[in-house]
Each structure stands twice: as structure tokens, then as C-alpha cells.
Amino acid sequence: MPAAKPPEFRRRALDLVAQGEPVAHVVRNLGVSESCLRRWMAQDDIDSGRRPGVSSGEKRELAELRRKNRVLEMDIEILKRASAYFARENILPK
């Protein structure tokens, strides 16, 4: 998988298309695939409110919340196992 392009690069590509440059010409000059540029264009439409969908900021927030949720679920599982271990230890005679 190729490395992600910086936001400035994406913005420049989108600006070229917005100025009327043909997509094929921009793709050839910048060395990105046409499908990649079209995805950037679609996401830009969503971010600017011209099209419904999940914005880039919302996607980042959702990914962060999912990551935190996974960590919390692991913490809960560890605490469950620890409490079961200590509960078992208290029941057995010494």
C-alpha cells in the first residue's frame, strides 16, 4: 500500500480539479490513481457539506472512540479475571 499523501498535497490536487483541470491530467501530473483522486473529491464534498456522509473529523473521532472502547473492554476483562482469581483464593482453606 502506498504511503498516505499529506493534506497539502491532497488540497493542491483538489484545487487543480476545482480550477477546471481534467481529472486525467491532474492524475498524470501528480502520480496518483484516478480512483484515489475521485475518493478525495467525494470526501471533500462531504466535508464541505455539499453531499451527505461522515466527515473526516467525525471519522477520526469515531476511530478514536472505538480504540478507547477496545482498551476499556480489555480492562474490564482483566478486572473480571482478577476478581475471579481473588474470590477463589478467599474461599479455599489455608
UniProtKB/TrEMBL annotation:
Pfam families: HTH_Tnp_1
Coiled coil regions in record: 55-82
Record-level Gene Ontology MF annotations: DNA binding; transposase activity
Keyword Coiled coil tagged: yes
SUPFAM superfamilies recorded: Homeodomain-like (SSF46689)
BP GO annotations: DNA transposition
Protein name: Transposase
Species, as recorded: Bowdeniella nasicola
